[in-house]
Amino acid sequence: MTADRTPARLGIDPRSPRFGAAITGVLLAVTIVLELTRPAVWFGYSGTGPFVEFFAILFQYRLPDPALWLLAAISAVFAWGAFAGIRRHPYGAIFRRFIRPRLGPPTELEDAAPPTFAQGVGFVITAAGVILQLLGVPYALVIAASFAFLAAFLNSVFAFCLGCRMYLGLRRIGLLRRPLAA
């Protein structure tokens, strides 16, 4: 009887992934702006944008592409959520410590497996953007960050989690047989 009331069975506060998606969305928007304002040979413009000049002065040209570093950090946070589980995600810890005490209790809890799967999808997309950017594929970073931003925006603003929907669809058609460990 008490085994059914363990935290793994109870679920997670659905506001926590939305909070994390909001932070991720802001960071991805900054990533896109940084990448689009760096020296852009493909636009026929050889100057630098104000963000690139700021970072160049700040780091004295030791940080060649701040957008790449930021997307790599976002990818690492996605990996943390995907492999350690959504309950151990750093944004979830911030939510539990600072935000949740100020809110009322959630009306319902949700299963941790779909958001954990969504973190894995975010990791794959952002890691692909980082790798393709390092390989010199034009617009790879912007495209990957834009897809991830769209998903984060939909989750944070409309509570529509694309990765969670993918998880449920894959379970429904039988490609995922068992829930992911949360």
TrEMBL record:
Transmembrane region(s): 19-36, 67-86, 121-141, 147-168
Keywords: Membrane, Transmembrane, Transmembrane helix
Residue intervals of the DUF4395 domain: 12-172
Superkingdom, natural source: Bacteria
Protein name according to UniProt: DUF4395 domain-containing protein
Native source organism of the sequence: Naasia lichenicola
